[in-house]
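call fold target=DUF3429 domain-containing protein
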Amino acid sequence: MTRVPRSALVLGLAGLIPFVWGAATIALPRLADFGTETLGPRFAGIYVLNFYGAVILSFMSGVLWGFSTRAEGAKAGAGYALSVIPALWAFFMVGGGAESSIKALIAGYLGLLALDILFWAMRLAPRWWLALRLPLTAIVVASLAVALL
């Protein structure tokens, strides 16, 4: 693996803010009250984790789709087919209840990490990809897990 480009790292870390915020508003009731009063209930606690978690899981499907454009033939076809799994997972598995959705998102992000590893091993993702995705995924999963405690 090589060094993560600064812009990718900064934007990746910024993308964690809603996950960490959601976990913090679960762990700290006063912060949840503040968030609900100033931003609205959708932007605090389990609600922001579910909504943003589904959005980003779907976004990551697009990233994998983009990686698939680097391949040809059957390898490209496999990449395209695999790339839609996170978005379909979010669509079909998130929304059946707050806690079950969190569990589905955790499974979705762990599955996404498996796809990240596969795309990296197939040399479709940049060499630095796992150096970025491993810590980001760990923080996302830990943030989502706070909702289940």
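return ok
The chain has eight helices and no strands. The chain has a mean pLDDT of 96.
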